[in-house]
From TrEMBL, chain A:
Gene Ontology terms describing biological process: ubiquinone biosynthetic process
Protein name: Ubiquinone biosynthesis protein
Keywords: Lipid-binding, Mitochondrion, Transit peptide, Ubiquinone biosynthesis
Family listed: Belongs to the COQ9 family.
Pathway: Cofactor biosynthesis; ubiquinone biosynthesis
Molecular functions per Gene Ontology: lipid binding
Stored InterPro entries: COQ9_C, COQ9_HTH, Ubiq_biosynth_COQ9
Domain COQ9 C-terminal, chain residue ranges per copy: 198-268
Task performed by this protein: Membrane-associated protein that warps the membrane surface to access and bind aromatic isoprenes with high specificity, including ubiquinone (CoQ) isoprene intermediates and presents them directly to Coq7, therefore facilitating the Coq7-mediated hydroxylase step. Participates in the biosynthesis of coenzyme Q, also named ubiquinone, an essential lipid-soluble electron transporter for aerobic cellular respiration.
TrEMBL record, chain B:
Protein name as annotated: 2-methoxy-6-polyprenyl-1,4-benzoquinol methylase, mitochondrial
Organism: Diplogelasinospora grovesii
Region described as Disordered: 1-60, 203-229
Function recorded in the entry: Methyltransferase required for the conversion of 2-polyprenyl-6-methoxy-1,4-benzoquinol (DDMQH2) to 2-polyprenyl-3-methyl-6-methoxy-1,4-benzoquinol (DMQH2).
Gene for this chain: COQ5
Family: Belongs to the class I-like SAM-binding methyltransferase superfamily. MenG/UbiE family.
Catalytic activity entry: a 2-methoxy-6-(all-trans-polyprenyl)benzene-1,4-diol + S-adenosyl-L-methionine = a 5-methoxy-2-methyl-3-(all-trans-polyprenyl)benzene-1,4-diol + S-adenosyl-L-homocysteine + H(+)
A biological process from GO: methylation
PROSITE patterns: SAM_MT_UBIE (PS51608), UBIE_1 (PS01183), UBIE_2 (PS01184)
Amino acid sequence: MSSTAGAVTGQIARCVQRPAAARLAPIASRTTTATNLVTVHCRPAASGRRTLSSACLLLRTTQSPRLSTTTPTTRTIPTCRAYHSYDHPPPPGPFSETEQAILSAAYKHVPEYGFSEEALALGARDAGYLDISTNLLPEGAFSLIRWHLVTQREALASRVDSNNNSVEALTWERLLGNKDVIRRWQEALAIMAQPSHVPASLKELAMLADEILYLSGDTSVDPSWYTKRASLSAVYASAELFMTNDFSEGFQDTRAFLKRRLNESAEVRGVLRSVGEWVTFTASAGVNVLRSKGVRI
Amino acid sequence: MTMAARPALRRAIPSLRSSTTHQSPQIQHSLRSFSCSSPACRASPAGSTTPDYATPDPSRPTHFGFETVTEAEKRERVAGVFRSVAESYDKMNDLMSFGWHRVWKDHFVAGLNPGFSPLGTPGSDPRSPQHILDIAGGTGDIAFRMLHTAHVVNGNPDVTVTISDINPAMLSVGRQRAQQQLTASQLAATSFVEANAEDLTQTKPLAPDSHSHSTITTTATTIPTTNPPISSSIPDNSVDLYTVAFGIRNFSNIPAALREAYRVLKPGGVFACLEFSKADRYGPVFNTIYKQWSFGAIPLIGQLVAGDRDSYQYLVESIERFPSQGEFRDMIVDAGFVVGGTGYENLTGGVAAIHKGMKPRAQ
């Protein structure tokens, strides 16, 4: 945001986006209450985070500890936010250093072994751990899928082209991030569709849509904040599904599919806007006609 | 810290104990942030940095159900409880949990997936041997499931299980069941030792009973081949998987047991614990029903079926006194383990919970 006008818009966006964030927060915290207080090793942290952790500690001191031997946690992980904040640094990812070591090694085996226990165990071996060490990952194979989703989403910011940061270009970049594992992605989608993994998968999709719209410079602060993200999520999910069966050169069919879907959603948005305008106009005109007839409204 | 050094250290810093145990958590936090930032301290939490509360001390107060007793007394009384319930233990478990404890145990073992090895390159045998230590494994519930998963489901015969319990009465029941239920190869991969989980340097193989012609082989790492009662040690970095199911709440000094687990586990080895926990995930109504059942019905069932009300009164009180999921996870982290995600998994709304931790690689 370089121009002054842009900066001002950003300011407004910041002010108005907070209620939206506040509305979203309960949803986010409901799904991740448990992760709120995950302990991890103490690292020099930003002052904001330190305040948070001491706040948690204070909270803990008010509860009577059952065992005098229990030591307090030294670090807390803030929960994953489901929206992009202008005011706060992004929360640390859901993976600890050890998990990252195993998962990044396991990810290299995905094209051959799929998103499976095999890939995880091979990754653990590569990282210098034992076969049994994969038990560290609470969700097994789904952790590997999540690793793919999170790393690809985070890599999007570095791949963004400053000249062309349209929603379509960004979504296409993200889809290309799947190309190494696309022949295994149907398995992954099947795992993601298991009931216990659906909430985490949907949240990841929502965060991806938010990331894409944020990077494309979207500053909407009205209900379209939600509709844009919802429609982009639907478009992305269907394009991804299309891509798993796309054997064309450079996934050109997927690209064409993506364009058609985005155009359609733009059309639908245009139609909805026109209908909205017509309804508003007609309603106010109707009110005025009634007023001219002497009705007191 | 060597064993010999422990009493010396205790004498040297008698005042530290009270200050450690009664200190406000915030001060500890600031202390910890210094020690944590140094990799050397993190690498060896069971070493010289062992806090005093994690060193077994027979005279330190702990709790036995809702009573406060010393650690030594608790050990005695827990031994008494399990001596008296050993025979009816499994029947009582079924009655108290409506058989649901089997589902938890199956889930626990299936999640751990012992003996699993990746396929690896064709031609080579990728199956790597594993040594499982089942602490407080008395009647063998977990160990037999482990053996089945490893030998039959995962086809890995190089998995050995050492069943350890402080109580020889429970171990005898376990060995009897092993002879009835296990195949010869599974039996050969099983060994029974009598040990205190807070100090695995002193283990004693279970004395053979005169009636059996069992061929319980002992693994080289745990016991010399000569029969009892030669005590031996479970060496450092020798165990792939340390499991304790419905046992850890009976320990006199849980932090010490966690540090001992850390010591015997290989780097990358996994500590897994299945234990009763706080049933607060399905809301207060479920919790109330659960509390009514455990305090109202379980001692009564114990009285009627096992003829021992006090032991089952202790059982439900000890469940009540056990730390919550988050607190216990923090204790695991404090012992030097790394945990993934939240560090625990709730079963049946938190009636039981599975905690897992991995010993990190030395840095």
